[in-house]
Each structure stands twice: as C-alpha cells, then as structure tokens.
Amino acid sequence: MSVKTLKINGVDIAIEEGATVLQAARQAGVPIPTLCHLDGVHDVGACRLCLVEVSGTRKLLPACVTEVAEGMEVQTNTPKLQEYRRMTVELLFSEGNHVCSVCVANGNCELQDVAIQVGMDHSRFTYRFPDRAVDISHPQFGIDHNRCILCTRCVRVCDEIEGAHVWDVAQRGAACYIVSGLNQPWGEVDACTSCGKCVDACPTGAIFRKGSTTGEKERDRAKLDFLVTAREKHEWTR
Amino acid sequence: MQAVTKTTQATPKPAKSDHPSGDRRFKTLDMTMKRHQYKPDALIEVLHKAQESFGFLEEDVLTYIARGLKLPLSKVYGTATFYHLFSLKPNGAHTCVVCLGTACYVKGSNKVSAALEEELGIKLGETTADGKISLMAARCIGACGIAPAVVFDGTVAGKQEPEMALAKVKDWELE
Amino acid sequence: MDLTELLDVGEAHRAAQKATRVHCCTSTGCRAASAMEVFKNLKTAVQDAGLEAEVEVVGVGCMGFCGRGPLVQIDPQQALYEEVKPEEATSIIDTLQGGTTPALKGDLQHPFFARQVKIVRQHSGKVDPESIEDYISVGGYRSLYKAIYEMSPGEVVDEIIASGIRGRGGGGYPTGLKWATVAKMPGDQKYVICNGDEGDPGAFMDRSVLESDPHLVLEGMAIAGYAIGANHGFIYVRAEYPLAIQRLQKAIQQAKKYGLLGSQIFDSPFDFKVDIRIGAGAFVCGEETALIQSIQGGRGNPIPRPPYPAQSGLWQCPTLINNVETLANISTIIREGGAWYASIGTDKSKGTKIFALTGKIRNNGLIEVPMGITLREIVEEMGGGVPDGEVKAVQTGGPSGGCIPASLLDTPVDYDSLVAIGSMMGSGGMVVMDQDTNMVEVAQFYMEFCRGETCGKCVPCRTGTVQLYALLTKLLKRQATQADLAKLESLCHMVQETSLCGLGISAPNPILSTLRYFNEEYQELLQPPAYLNGKVGHGQVTVSQ
Amino acid sequence: MDKIKFATVWLAGCSGCHMSFLDLDEWLIELAQFVEVVYSPVGCDLKHYPDNVDVCLVEGGIANEDNLELILQVRRQTKILISFGDCAVTANVPAMRNMLGGAEPVLKRAYLELGDTSPQLPYAPGIVPELLDRVLPVHEVVPVDIYMPGCPPPADRIRATIEPLLHGEMPAMVGRDMIKFG
Q: Quick check: is A238 in a domain?
C-alpha cells in the first residue's frame, strides 16, 4: 500500500493512501472536534465541526470524509475555523433543549466537551425551545429528543453494526427527528434487540439507560470499537 | 397480466404479499412492486402509487410496502415523511393549493392565501374539521406567467384575486 | 429503422400536413386560461367552415408569451392572437376567408419575440409535442443518427467541449468536461440522468421545454448515453408538472416504437432506454447527490462530494447528470457543430439561455436570448418595463441567487458577470420587482423557502436557516438592533461556507445581495437597544456581544 | 485606593449561584478588602441599585417584569456585568417553561390544571410581577461583558473570574474549569 505525505498545521505526516484527513490528524495528535463521526460506521459529514482548510481550494473540507493526498497542506485551527466551529456549536445548543444541569450526560457529554473545546461561553443565537417528546416505552432505555443533535450515530450503529435498523430520520429540516420503526414507541418496535449500542453511540444524553439520573450516564465507547475491530480484523479478544 | 389470471383460477392461492383485507387497492400496489421487481429502490414509485390509490399513506399501507420491498419500517417512514407530496393524513374532499412561488408572491399571493385562511378558519397545510377542504401551499407550480396562481382540485387558475379564490371555495362549502 | 426510413417518416408527415396550420398552445399556462376550450372551438370552427382539406388545428407547446395566454398562431400567415377567448375561435378561422376577428392581435415584431434567438425553443409552439412524426418532420433524431453512424463517442464529447456550453441548471460547470470525465471512467454500467426537478420558485423553463418538445430532450439524453457509454437514462421530473410527465411518457413510448430508444437504436449496437422518475416535492432533490438518493428510493439527503457522481453516482456507477435545458441543446450542437454554437454568446458563456420573465413586468413569459444580452435589454425592451412604476430590482437564480438593483441593469447576462454582482444565473428565473416590494421582506420570503426546504442533514443549513429567518423576522418587527444586523451578516457567511450542499451554500445569497444593494432598508428597521431607554446610557459597556 | 463598587443580583434562578458564591469561604474576607458591596441579596441590605457600580454578578434569567426592570437598570448603572451561572447565561431550568409556548399556558398548567383545591390564576397587579412570555438569558436583553456558566459555577471558577477584575484585568474564560455548562 502506498503512503501519502502531507502537512497538517505545518507538521509533516505520512499515512497510508485512502486514509482520511481526520485519521491523519489523529495520528499526528492534532485535535479536530467531531460529533457525527463514529469509528466503525460510515461517515456522513453532517455536523461540519471537522471542517479544515486545504490549500488550493477555497472550500472548507470535512476532515472525516476527505482523503489524504500527496503534498496536501491542511490547516485545522485558523481563526475562521475557530469562529465557524463555535457558531456551529451555538447553533446546536440553540436548536434543542440542552439543559446540562439536569441531563444524564452532564460531565460525560460530547456536545458539552465540544462547547468547551471551541470556547463557547454562551450562545449568540436565540434558543428555539422546540416542543419535543420523550419516549420511555422501552423497558431498559429511553430517548429524550430534547437532547438530540441529529448526528445519526444511533441510526448508523443500529443499521451497520447491529443490523436491526430500528432508527431512521423522519421529516425534514428543523422538523427532523429520530424515529423508531413506523413512528412507534421504541418499546413496540419488533426489530429492536435491546443491545444498547445506540446508548453507547449517542454523544449526548438523548439516548440513555433508564434509572440513571443527572450526570450518571456512562457509555462503553470501547465496546463499539471492539466489535468493529473484531469483525474487520477477526480479533475477538479485548 | 399475471395477477389477473391468478384471480380467475378455480382455487385462487393468494400471493405471499397479498393483504388479508382483500382490499383491491393492495393488488395495485402488488403490481407496481412487481413491475419494479420488488427492488427497495422503487420505494418512492410505490409510495406514489399508494398515495394515488389510497389518498394518503396509512400505517397499514406503509407496513405492507415495507414488507413487499424488504425495507426497515423506519426507513419507509423516514422517506415518506421527507417528501411534501406524501401525506400521512387523509386530505379533504376538495383541495385548494395556493402557489407561493416568487412570481406569485410578488403579485400578491399572500393576500389570496390570507383571505382563504380567514374564510376557512384553517392554516395552510390543514384540512377543515368537516373534512371538506384542504388548503395547501405550493413552492412553485411553474405557472409564473399567469401569477398569482391557485390550483383548485388539480385545475390551475391564473391571475387570482382574493375574491375570485373565495368565490370558488364558497361554492365548495355550499355543496 | 435506418436513415432512409427516418427521412421517409418525416417526408410523409410533411406531405400530409395541411397548407395552413393553426397552432394553439396547450401548455400549463394557457390551459389555466381555458386554452383547451379554445382548441376545441378552433377545431369545430374549421369543420363548420368546411376547411378541413387545407387547414389543420394543432395543439402545440409553449409560445413564450405566457402572460397573454391563450395564444394562437396561424402559419404560414404568421398571425398571432393573444388572450384568445373560446368564443373568438370562429372569427379567427373566418379571417382565413377574409373575415375579421375581435381577437387581440399580437405583434411578432415586438422585441419580446424579435430579439429572441431560439435553439432550445426552436420547435416550441410549432410542433405537436404529442407527435413524434411532427418532431421527425422538422429534423428530429437526425443528430442521434449522425452521432451513432458518423461520429465516435469521443468525437461527440469533443464537439460538446468545442461548443463551450455550460450547465444550465445554475452552477455553470462546463458540460463537455463533465461528459469527458464520465466517458473516461472505467466500468460497464454508466447512467445518464436528466435533472428536471426545477424547483426554483419563479422558474418554469424546464417545464415548458418538456411540455413543448419532449423528444428534443430524449434525443439529447440518447446522444449523451452514446457519448459516455451509458445504456440507461433516468429523467427526474417534479410531480408538480403532470402535463410534462404525461407528454414525456407518450414521447418515450413513441420513440421506443420507432426504435429510437431501447435496444439497437437505428439497428446499431447502441442500446439506450429511458425511465421517468417522479419527484415528490423536495426542492433539495435538484441537488445532484440528493437527486441520486431520491432515484434510489431514499430521503433526498445530499452526500459529500467527492466522490462526484461522475465517478460514483447512481448505484455507485459513473453517472452524468445534466439539466433539461442543457440536454435540449445537444441535438442542435451535434447538427450544427460545436464551433457554430460557440459563435453565439460571450467569451466564457456560450449559446443561449431561457429565462422566465415574471413579476412586475408588462410582458410575462419565456424568452430565449443569447448570453451577453444586458438585463436592461431583457427587462425594458423585451419585457416592456414595469406597468406602473419603475424597476427596483431584478431577482435571478431564485432562492440561491440575489437581487440586482436597477443601477446594475446594464450588466450582461452571463455566468461570471452575475456571480460578480452577488447573484447567479440559476436555472433561469428572472423576477422583476418594483417600488412596492420591500427588499427585507423578499429576503425573508426566500429564507422561509430555504428553511422549509433544507433536508436537515447538516447543522449550518438546518439550524442556520432557522436563525436567519428569525433574525429577519425580528428586523421586520422592528425589534432588532445593530448587533442583530451584524449577527445576521456573520451567520450568512458561516452558512455559506460550512454547509454541505449547494442549498445551504447559496441560501444566504438573497440576504447578502439585499444587504449589499438595499442596506438602507435594513438600517431603517433598526432600533436602539432597550436598556439605553432611547438615549446613551451612563453605563459604560466594555465588551458588547 | 478606592474600593470597587460590587453588586450581585438575583433574578429568575434558584439562588444556588449565590450559595456557591458563599462557598468562597475565607476568600470572601480577602474580597471584602477590595470591594464595597453596594447591592446584593446575600451581602448587604440596600434596597436600591446604585449608580456607577463597577462589577455586578447577575444570577438568573429574565422571567418577569420585575427582572426586566432591574436588569435594564443594572445595565445602565454598571460597568462590568457578569452573567453568573447557567440561568443567566442560557436561561437554563427556568426556561424549561418556554417549551409550553408562552406565559398563559404556563399559568394555566400550574394554577388551573395542577391546582388541587381552589384552582385560580394569580392576579395581583403591582404586587406580583407579570410573567414575560419567555424566560430569556440576560444577554438577550442587555449586553453582557463576561459569561460565567455553571449550575452553579463552582467557587473556584467564581474566584478565578473575579480576582483578575480586582487588578484591572479581564479573566480568561476558557477551558473546562471556566466554561463548562451544568
């Protein structure tokens, strides 16, 4: 396999052909914030947090789906990118009802972490306060749409790893929401195997284990990694 | 054609996908799905046919399609709700679609829609409580040359003043 | 079928034609003004007058002057009648025998008609869109024959490159380059998609082309298929265009019957079939990757490019996606040659473009003009200006375009000039606005559209459009401050630069262009911050938000 | 050296931020050497918000007419206004009523639907301030100079925010210790 060399923030990096800019950055220890990316499932390039500047193009490119190329020069943290990332996170906070203080994921939430990472001390955008539902019909889990950022990690993990395709996205635009089955209560969807992968995949407190209260959500992210490695490389031990 | 011969057999054996209700409209769906070789890619084509035959997409129909095309339920629901033309609720006996495209907007279609909303006591996108009239908005029906345009039960009417549209709708109300 | 047979069909059809043809428009616009009744009455009138031997009434596609429909034109006399009422049909036929008619006489020498250069619309309003023989009789499918038998696929691509034609769907990507890319891709299975999801409000060029001359588009698709090595094409049409769909269906059947679509076209090894896919009401499906998702039966969510559809499109196969108007140019380019086509238009924008001229303008309708004509020529000469008042702005490019102020009416209409002034060619909507139009309201109108049409996949477009709409609403309620206006502008840039697809990237254009040219209308709406009580406060604000 | 005129106000919040402020413990004594507390529900008994306040910590969102009146006055009469805690910064828990859509449905839900004995809407003009339709974060009403999130902000964060101000410097509101919500 051939190797490509590129520069990220001025640092030389060599990585195998076909790798993404995000993988290259991680290998080099350059932090790029992400929300919709999840190792092991396909990338959708939807959250736009991982946008980077690549010399030679005026367009900002999502690191998660942009393949490395020979001689590529990438900037991951220019003032413009910092500003746009912060705005993106502010937009996410203003779109849902994210009340960290009463959330199961407080202290263990990727949205909260990203807010800190991008330096968001407040949202300049008006909170929308949408009227969203909570579904606790499943015996073990619940989904609180107020906390959902529509990253679709649950949709992909359920389809691509578990193979159950319980979830999908319904409606469009601001009305989009994660739907289970034929818009049925989650607990009534036959396809659900109660495997809990969506709980582990959810970056926020939107999908949670019932019975956990503020700040108690824990997720075993390593389990998903393990499963993917096991299937792809046939390594069935941790 | 095969579907027709099947029904004329002495002891008709229902095809696997047949709907237990025996509703003929499901047969139409079967034929559409068969024409597309039950490929999951045909979902939108089949939804169009279902909407045409049933008037709207009820749960039963969506489940039937999901089974026929071997698709997850959530995917069928997600796709059906993505597109404006698919309706999961029944429409009124009459439909009145106000075009809100740019040319119509510049020529005052918002006044037409406001007048209709007031007359019918419903908002765009809603159906009157008696199920008689659905009031809808279109992004652009491409009849910009005769703006503002309104579509009454599928027939395009151009250069509409609020009074003209009201007169038409009032006729329906009297029916 | 071979060439002789094709020529014979045309010849026989011409021979059977009557000396006088009464063309009556039966397209959507005129139908809404009872054109079908006029059509029926004209036929009866011909019978009643006993003129069947020398006169025929033909239902045709769009003649362009949609604002004055129904239109009737008698040829070869070149007599045009506008706003024809059903009861005027008899007297119009009477004129053929020296009678007179009260029907409104049109003026074909008016700049609205005289300044047009018709390539795509060459047969519109002249041929019966439901008759393949009519199309063949005016030279139809000859270019397809020429491509298959007289040119290699590579030569066809070269001809398109030489023509300099750029995509008519809005972006203006060089068509020849796109064809060459797909042609070069490895793989046995490739597809041609004709994008007929004309969603821009205020635009109906593609509808008119499909309704008036469906075979022209089908022929273009087949030539494209031959050039890039595809044997299957899809034509994606909005469900809002039922007549276009109906006529296309008929056209495909007729072409199949004559062996002009399907297997072994013109008895050559080239196969090409065309299927129609009907949209279901989603503007975003005009975006090529969303359109592909939709053809594959899914939500119309765009996916990141690269890979471009040319590399990996429909079912991961190399796919050529062209707009209706682009494909409708192909047959003529092959017939007349790329060099001929390149002689029309400007240096970087070749050929002609159809515009839907609507809004506050005297002459409403469709016009096909050479690239490089100025907006002023279109609006004032051809369009006849604003009925009562003056042009304030011209909107081009729909929700992705911008509002051009009257002061820039001398801008030539070509891809690059329009982008330079903050708008875009778009698919061809051209909406004229006068002094009664509030530009902030126009920006809000477009943002409402984008907010409702965003697919919801990427964050900036899904939530940014909502926030932009809210800020414009706040402005119009006279509750916004200077800080809000600054926020509006910075959010516009953010949505433009970070959105996943063209919808989001271009959604802020109507705001940015009105901010640029009509800034005073925004300023007038601003309020001082409430805490100042209308005056400068004693509190010193060190950091403002 | 003149002391810094220091104030704290309590709008729509639970007073938890003020409790956290009191958690500064012995540092409060140090703070007292630098500041003169001119208005505060926990620090002094003055009833009127004075002119020329240097620094004001604002706890809570803007939920009613009273909050609105006070915050406008605070802004006019204060140099550095600090949004103190999540309710001030995001409107937080008090704003969860916003999802119901407005003041009227909230009052109906609280006083009529859930009223056990004699359900009635509160009405006491001039005594009970009217609810605003929406609970707003402070910066939606007036400009804010420093945002200090947290529910409540831990005492260390409060100190790290105020301490630089005592020396005429602005605090750096970055990193998990300073700007984590919740």
A: no
